[in-house]
Design brief:
Layout: E1 26-31, E2 34-39, H1 47-54, E3 65-68, E4 71-74, H2 78-84
Parallel strand pairs: 1-4
Antiparallel strand pairs: 1-2, 3-4
């Protein structure tokens, strides 16, 4: 199933952003030119740390955000996309 949400029309803000981590085993977050990998199967960060990874400067879910199977990609990092979307 593919679901696309235009967050410019329906922003996902604050605590609501945590809902995208439901049933996810891993998160890849673009941080500048690097990607941060969080393995939720081995350790789950606290709410504040997860929100810091997911939210942009305006307080909304960072774009683009993609869910591929049980992996969440937040922000754009070419290396992470290539690895997950192979």
């Amino acid at each position: 199933m593919i679901e696309q949400v235009d967050t410019s029309k329906s922003p996902i803000r604050g605590e609501a952003a945590l809902s995208v981590t439901k049933d996810v085993d891993a998160i890849w977050v673009a941080k500048g030119k690097k990607a941060v990998h969080v393995d939720l199967k081995t350790s789950r960060p606290g709410r504040a740390e997860l929100l810091a990874l997911l939210l942009g400067p305006t307080g909304g879910l960072r774009a683009p955000t993609l869910r591929v199977g049980r992996t969440l990609l937040v922000g754009f990092n070419e290396e992470a996309y290539a690895k997950i979307l192979k």
